[in-house]
Amino acid sequence: MLRTFSHPLPGEMNERNGEMNERTELEDAPTDNSQQTVSDDDEIDYSSKPEFYDSKLDDRDELWAQKQRSGRISDAVLSCPACFTTLCLDCQRHEKYVTRYRAIFVVNCRIMEEVSQPGSKRKRNRRGSQSEARPSAADTFKRVCCSVCSTEVGVIDEDEVYHFLNVLPSEA
């Protein structure tokens, strides 16, 4: 047999002793803590100048960013998709593949071992059989990774042009 226990609500008859369960004034009274809540804004002294606030900081940051870009106009500012580190400030968007970019000057990038372009490892000779062929200089790429988190973000070709394939673009 399953027994359930219940406590009578205020104003209900208590079955055990036949008395009414009355609310007391203490139960109805609000707690003193909620009445005496003090806002942090009341404690702030606005008469003195804030120690860590500089109203001209945004203007100086904008000038610094323009100086870093040397007045060049870019299609996007590229960032690592894993850690959001800035990788390139001056790049050009691919005309056909709009998620790809190319650049010459990069930051926070590390060049890894050589990788051949996919599909260029095997070539057919005249008889139709497949044979292993060395990739030509035009087909050789090196992987480019983020220097902060080592996420692969693109490749660099033999002309030292970076091709970014896995990046987050933002407005330039």
The SS-based structural class is alpha+beta
Specify the overall morphology.
Answer: elongated
Number of strands: 11
Under the CATH scheme, which architecture of the domain at 73-170 would be assigned?
Answer: Beta Complex
**DSSP helical segment count:** 4
Instruction: Give the termini distance in whole angstroms.
Output: 74 Å
Provide the low-confidence segments as ranges: none
CATH topology (fold) name of the domain at 73-170: Metal Binding Protein, Guanine Nucleotide Exchange Factor, Chain A
Strand order of the largest sheet: 3-4-10-9-8-5
Radius of gyration, CA atoms, in whole angstroms: 34 Å
Helix content range: 10-25%
Indicate the CATH class of the domain at 73-170. Answer: Mainly Beta
Helix-strand topology string:
HHHHEEEEEEEEEEE
Percent in strands: 25-35%
Average residue pLDDT? 75
**Biggest sheet character:** 6 strands, antiparallel
Briefly say what this structure is:
By secondary structure, the chain is α+β, with helices and mostly antiparallel strands.
